[in-house]
Amino acid sequence: MKKIAAIHDLSSYGRASLTVAIPILSYMGYQVCPLPTAILSAHSEYPNFRCFDLTSQMESIIEHWKELDLHFDAIYSGYLASEQQMDIVERFFENFGSDDNFILVDPVLGDNNQLYTGMTSKMIEGMRRLCSKAKVITPNLTEAAFLLDKKLTAEITQEEVMGWCQELSQLGPEYCIITSAPSGNPKRISTLAYNKNDNRMWKVSSDYVPASYPGTGDAFASVITGCLLNGDSLPEAIERAVYFINAGIKATFGHEHDPLNGMNQEKVLHCLTEMLPYTYEQISL
Ligand code: PXL
Fold this sequence. Notes:
CATH superfamily: Ribokinase
Helix content: 25-40%
Bound molecules: 3-hydroxy-5-(hydroxymethyl)-2-methylisonicotinaldehyde
CATH topology: UDP-N-acetylmuramoyl-L-alanine:D-glutamate ligase
Distance between the termini: 39 Å
Number of strands: 14
Shape: globular
Order of helices and strands: EEHEEEHEHEEEHEHHEEEHHE
Number of helices: 8
Low-confidence stretches: none
């Protein structure tokens, strides 16, 4: 069975990070090995959340994993809780990355044009370094702007986001996938992805739903990790991730539900394995 090292926090309430990634990747048939970065009472968009930083425990867990000589088929990182963790994860990539696995970095920094509580400029720099070591990165539009040190305005166009994908891929990653991008149609939202290896740009659009659920970025990156590990192409992986998120949002939106508690992904896990609609497009550069 293929194994994935999942470097994220455990937020006990409000679906995010490990509580999102583990069920998705287990459903897809992988063994998830969590390397927890912190334990939070609830994710950081809840007021007064408590955070137990696991920076020193991470070093000890990694030490044991080295003693056990473990091998992972994918290394997948997300929310990191301190500047020091950026260095720890960089060393983890050096120790556990190899020719027969891949690294996906979800550079969790913020959303809606703002950094999450506790994120610092040093952590942006650290994420930039981690992105340079990854094969695949999955920033949302806000994170892409912070990584590139650019201003994000409501007027941003699809062409500009395509340029950002290409610029980010110059940091190192082969695939750069940017979520929540404009599609040119206000009723639709796009995911754009650039493959540096064959110089092709891909687009998958979905209905824009006027709601925001924390943790959808974690779900998105988890599905991408699982699909790529399964041998799917880049546009197929994006298609699956967009399909899953869209189903999850629609399974939540109609309920009288506190949006902070994330999307009802438990209801739509079957979308991870059923037939895909195949709507992706290649867009010219
Ligand atoms: O969904 C990203 C994420 C991960 N981990 C924690 C968070 C968030 C977003 O708010 O707070 C702790």
